[in-house]
Fold each of these.
Amino acid sequence: MLLERVLGAEAAYKLERRIEWRFKKSGLPERKTLEAFEWAFQPNLDKAFVMELGTLDFVRRKEDVVITGAWGTGKSHIIKALGLRACLQQMAVRYARGVDLVADLHAGLADATYPQRLRRWAVPDLLIIDDIGLGQVKQREDEPTAAHTLFNLIDRRHGHASTAFTSNIKLSAWGRYLGDATLAGAILDRVTMHAIRLDINGPSWRQHVANERAKKRGAKLPDDRPDPEVDAQP
Ligand SMILES: Nc1ncnc2c1ncn2[C@@H]1O[C@H](COP(=O)(O)OP(=O)(O)OP(=O)(O)O)[C@@H](O)[C@H]1O
Ligand SMILES: [Mg+2]
């Protein structure tokens, strides 16, 4: 009985260690959870739909996910929470912001490590490319466009493993942002063909937190966010 308990504890410890290793390898910057998400704050968001994503069946089906929506609506929170759940389910996960992923691959062109780097991004069960549209995609004269680099990666993954994107720009604006409309179109053609789409149309949690703080101080902040460019098309 005692042995059983000890063995149980040891197995549990090993499992915990494996999950921790998965999380570290994933590059997820923080542990966001669906349990900590305030659903009431985002009433247009279908909780049941997101919880279904939380089962990670889409990863097993090798489907892609595209989450669009305005600033601060919880896109990154949800995608990071899905990433954490995938680690808990012992899946291989990698997370990067769009700009960092492209920069990593371009660094590989400079030091001839591109094939290894491409492989590392190509093989995980779930690749999360967060915040497409945020930050400037840097491109040197001798580098391909971000669209070209991402296309190479997505073309390898599509149908073999799941990729999840978040973006606060219209999908139609990806071409301009990634530097090549044709290749961005080719990415979207692959991704949107079977992708699960979620558009979060609602208020910004960051603005909400700022307003609450201001209220406490007795001041009121104006809503000075620029107009969000959200693609609500299916
Ligand atoms: N409904 C919510 N409940 C609890 N926390 C939330 C909620 N929505 C957002 N947050 C928190 O607000 C912060 C901003 O959210 P997040 O980064 O997910 O926004 P985003 O939609 O990705 O915005 P951006 O377009 O600027 O990338 C995060 O700390 C996140 O955890
Ligand atoms: Mg985000």
Note: The first strand starts at residue 65 and ends at 69.
Amino acid sequence: MFKRTSLIAALLATPLAAQDSAAPVGDPGLEVSEERLRADMGTIVGFETRHTLSSQTDPERGIGAAVDWALAEFERMSADCGGCLDVQAVGRVVEPDGRRIPTDTLIRNAVAIQRGTERPDEVIIVQAHYDSRVTDPLDGTSVAPGANDDGSGSVMVLEAARILSQREYPSTIIYALLTGEEQGLYGAGILADWVTEQGMTVKAVLNNDMIGNSCGADGYCEPDVVRVFSEGLRADSTERLRALQRRFGGENDSPGRNLSRWLADLAERYPDGMQVREIWRTDRMGRGGDQIPFLDRGLPAVRVTVSVEDYDHQHQDLRTEDGVKYGDTVDELDWTYLTSASRLNMRALNALALAPMPPQVSADAAVRMDTELSWSEVPGADSYTIHVRRTNEADWRDGLPEGTRGERWEGLKVTEAVDGRITDIVPLRGDDWLFGVSACNGEFCSPVASAVPGGAFEPVEQPQEE
Ligand SMILES: [Zn+2]
């Protein structure tokens, strides 16, 4: 009798024990620790201000000490994974800009690079801005906890590095704590230039900026949804691309937009987890974020942020006025929300780092009753999936419509490629449909790249300067 009970208990205990050991298989979202998020938040808020114009040299207070701590923390994680993280302070001195940089200012990002085992030049970036501010954007001395904006994204990035560095991936992951965001997106611009100089191919940038509150000042709450902002027309578009898109389409198929669709799909697979509301604009009205310097350079990027903003607790001097408390403080955070948003990031990074790059896809459907799709062979892909949607549909369909061929394009071997390209005829009239292809490695498929001009996950070719 006793024996039997203990056997059942042992069986029940097995999966939990496997989770606790942080084994490099299964869902990394389950490894997110609210306790660690809270501990890191306590540490970074303890620097009192992380304003970009605050002290670079004070060992305890200001951005210098905060960045030094983050670099040391990345180094500690690296020691725990046999030196798997290349930790760097990626930065430079920015000259006065007549706006929010009054004097020569060192902009230093804390960056950890986990090199891919197969395709180290292919990179996914998870980032948050580490700097904080109060009401006056030039105030580098007042206490500016920046708990939600963007301490929340920052502690998630640290947790991502901690969890995912215990696993190995074919492609590279960069964990980045950026500074200078509130002064004009400087740190993101510096990192975007740096990855380009390194010759890296950017698969995706997940810019997390404010992922730690669920209610607005009016009491309206949405505890289970994050917004993902993606650009429509590409920021790096050219006259030539605009002309091509007029002839062939592509207004709603930028790489960022397809990354957004991919994230929404991923979230749906975890119905109890954080869901995605896709917002089809680059950022909130009149505002910006660190995804923008990447988009400017033609690199696929989205902003992940809270569903409901609380303006009383961002960019505010700490004070109480007419009984209303202002300031971006730790006590205003929703830890369940932040933990859940962090889980979504872990799952997304894991899947993106295991998936191949999206292919470059083109469609020929002019004056014909079917569509010839052709796409580039992608390193690390063992199969490809064709996706279709009506021109006025928001999302890619699951599989091809009734009357066309099978649901998933399985098992196409890369050896079938001719001159590096794979071709297939889809029995649908191309004028009435949009097409895209994702590249898969087992169950992990890339975001869809659309078969339209400007749909590829690479910068648009710029005209030669005269
Ligand atoms: Zn922010």
Note: The longest helix spans residues 335-354.
Amino acid sequence: MAITSSISRDAKSRSSILSKNVFRAETSSSNRSGRDVQRIQLHDVRRQATAQSLVPCIVDGLKSERRQSPPLLLWNDRGLSLFDAVLDSPDYYPATREWSLLHNAVRKISYSISSGDRLIELGAGNMKKTALILHTLQAQHKHVQYFACDVDRSALRRCIRELQKLFPAKSSNIKIQGLLGTYEDCAAWLKCNKSNSHTSLMWLGNSMANFTPREASEYIRSFLSSGSSMIIALDGCQDQEQIARSYEGQCNREFVLNGLPHANQLLGTNAFDINDWEFVGRWNSKLWMHESFYVARKDLALTVCGETYHFRMGETIRSIRSGKWPKMKVMEICREAGGKVMDSWMNCEETYGVYLVGKH
Ligand SMILES: C[S@@+](CC[C@H](N)C(=O)[O-])C[C@H]1O[C@@H](n2cnc3c(N)ncnc32)[C@H](O)[C@@H]1O
């Protein structure tokens, strides 16, 4: 892969670059086969390298009274492939529910995005749903700058390349770029990259519900403060059996357990032996969230960054959470954030919703 241009890549100047609020952009094209491959404009908006930001989170999580591990450990390139298998598994109802809702409502949802807007997708993933939305915007003759924000460079590049095949830069009204970084990085980038045009943030796949209701409110507050509006897709299913089937099957097990080798890779040691851990899922009724855990198969002593952490057989480390919030709960979360649900599109059973959120 040839990097054809880049704004300063000098690591030493990184802190001064960040302090001037300039984010690195790189433009590259793949020419291995000599074919005309489109360039990818990728902005590295990370304020810290991934290992630098995640290792302290792993340590803090092991030190905390209720042990937890950063959910971001799940989202490396391999994690995204494993998540694709989750999306394809017949028991994973949120994927089919969101697809059919988007299919039915995509034209109406797209009316909330105007020509000239900047559309930023948080946690863009495989961008299959994105393609549906961008096709609709194109059919509505809108010119849109689309930015896919996600955390793994190689997965982001691969998925952008696939999307670019559908929307070639030369002939399409839709211009595609990438933002490499977390949601927080993206919020910081937005603050220093104000645009004259309106910004719409799209958060699909129930991803906002990976945070507690309080954290979700804080994210909304932060994004709305940049003057953006938000399109948020959320699962409101309350059927416990269906949730357990969907989140506790073999595909989910593999997806969650992949966090352990990723932790080892970032720590540079084999602190977590995957054979020592099992996966379990549970419903947390206080938070209206499903929670996934690593469970110690035997008594363990883990050495991480020079400290030893003891686990008795059966003790857990919490991994990812997935909230199941019906409309009333979503409205409450938005209100807490100083926002308001301006419009919403629900499936017939009212178990899945897409919400348009703006400042109150
Ligand atoms: C549940 S998947 C949803 C993917 C896609 N939007 C969809 O609807 O199929 C969550 C996506 O968010 C990304 N992600 C998770 N945590 C993130 C964070 N803190 N900042 C940025 N992206 C994140 C993951 O890499 C993944 O692509």
Note: The radius of gyration is 21 Å.
Amino acid sequence: MAAIPPGERRRCSLCQVEIQGMAGGVDLVHFSQGAPGTRAKLWARVCQYLRSDEQKGQCLNQDQALRGTVVQSDFYAEAPIVDFSSMGGEAPGTNPAA
Ligand SMILES: [Zn+2]
């Protein structure tokens, strides 16, 4: 599957998102909600769940070389994971004496 030329947008008819070709190959994915993301994020949230070869044939984001490396944060929400242990105390609501 060919890369999308810079400046062009293609809609993935299955995933219902638009992928915008970017110079340098890191394409921008316009989700229906939230901030634009990467192909890796799109794949983690949507495209990996496609099962049939027919579906995969229609999806614009099945090429591993184009989507790059999928990292764990691609699978979850935008908010960072808060580590309460680094704040010098227990998480709120866990102290029975309070
Ligand atoms: Zn897709």
Note: The CA atoms of residues 17 and 33 lie 10 Å apart.
